[in-house]
Amino acid sequence: MPERVGKYTIMLNNKPSIRSYASVAGKKESEGPLRKYFDHIYMDTSIGGLSWEKAESEMQKKAVKLALDKANLKANDINYIFAGDLLNQSMASVFALKDFNIPYIGLFGACSTMAEALSMSCIFVESKCANKCIAVTSSHFCCAERQFRFPLEYGGQRTTTAQWTVTASGATVICKNQDNLPYVESITMGKICDLNIKDANNMGAAMAPAAYDTIKKHLDDTQTDIQDYDMIFTGDLGLIGSELLRKLLLLDGVDITNKHKDCGVMIYNTKKQDTHAGGSGCGCCASVLCSYILNKLQNREFKNILFVATGALMSTTSSQQGESIPGVAHLLNIKA
Amino acid sequence: MPERVGKYTIMLNNKPSIRSYASVAGKKESEGPLRKYFDHIYMDTSIGGLSWEKAESEMQKKAVKLALDKANLKANDINYIFAGDLLNQSMASVFALKDFNIPYIGLFGACSTMAEALSMSCIFVESKCANKCIAVTSSHFCCAERQFRFPLEYGGQRTTTAQWTVTASGATVICKNQDNLPYVESITMGKICDLNIKDANNMGAAMAPAAYDTIKKHLDDTQTDIQDYDMIFTGDLGLIGSELLRKLLLLDGVDITNKHKDCGVMIYNTKKQDTHAGGSGCGCCASVLCSYILNKLQNREFKNILFVATGALMSTTSSQQGESIPGVAHLLNIKA
Fold it and tell me: What is the pTM of this model?
């Protein structure tokens, strides 16, 4: 049964397992360093060409189907699906998942949504509210860009601090503990942190304080230190947010330099691919988790990692009204 | 500990209690039949006048503060806050809650969000992931109208099937079972139902099949029938959706006519107040639950009710692309 440890952390004593995981990605993502880890690549990311939003739904649907196939399960075996995305009213998830006939729990945590979905799935399985759950999120450059920034045809110049919305989706099936599968041991859900960053082209800076806050709380609650972990994966701070996070932790004497990777930095050859500060979007850390990270956990190359997904909680309306961009970060300790 | 009953229902054997509840509402809502049940009325719903979105955040903040006060608790006593609203990227919730310093779990289920938030809060408390949680949602006519339909200044004519977005917010504090408090006994989370309704001015019709599906599953799973309940409260089907729900259930021989009320119908004198098919919005069933319904449960006028919140999962983008409006409904059995 779950147990509270410290003030913010939930220990999952039954250690729910990640029974399967699947990732799909677009052309640009396939040109980055993680190509071989993705289960499916779309060379034409319009996927049918009806709309970019429908294309994102198709990707999410595919990720769920692949995760079910790899787990040798049918949709009917799943008790709940936890999902979300960046689009207004989560339309990518709604239209992706409506035909699966699985009870649907919609989430919104911006780019942190995958950690939120995974946390809820694990808590439901841990507490016996469910036998099996799916956590899935997605993002698509073309619909995110036109919703949050400019029409695609505009071709506006991007600042060096801007991040590139990843076209990808990642899905996992969570079940009761089974031998030889990666499992989730503990969860620290974060609070909203707002340091008054207002630049929608510098989301890394907006999210770094949230990542710092959640990591600190997790270390305090579990009385562990960085040396106990093989790696700390954040997503999606990008180059600038990652540097800020390292500096913030260093002020507390916590040095993550050699143990830290950010999903937004990992997914592209940022310089070669002209993605400036790196990738972002709900599909970024979801697809990196459901490809590279879980693969290395399954192979026991990593045995104990922190997965810290960060979200920039902004809308075009709040930005136009001069509001700041609050951040949030949720953390899972995943072991093999 | 929680236990699965039937295929879709979670039985909460520890029976988490609703320790406190609070509702705030606007001027139009105060002119309806539920005025005396609301904790706070805003006669000027611009609340400071900076923007309609900020006004909605203020309402949500107020509802949380009132619920905390009534429970004699501080924000620091709360482990998680589950929240959501209708605005793009849930901006009303984010800006309402960012200064409470409570770990934040963002949800999106359109008008069903209150049932989603309440379910998550109860499951977290039941399974000992939390000692105390808050569930809160809100909506505001002015920002919903301009986001989903027309600029307020346009003064477009409304169809008779249209619903009126409620300006209100409701919040509850959930804690371990305590004597003499209303408690949640079981939860049935719904799947997405899509009967291809495309009229954004007839959301009742889009949501009725989801309410039907979730109620049927709950009755089947718990082997109860309508006679076992004092009342079934849906929200927000409005006049048209309510009639459709009754007809759908009657086809199965289930007659709810004398036991059914809909929050969207209850909150206004629909004819006198010119609200056509009734109220809608995340704040509608939240404020009716956190005023009239919980009041009557606390006074033992009701002892056993079903609260079935329904959501129309549409965005302007999906509607403009000719998509249908899928519905979802989540159900809680609340007892006194």
Answer: 0.98
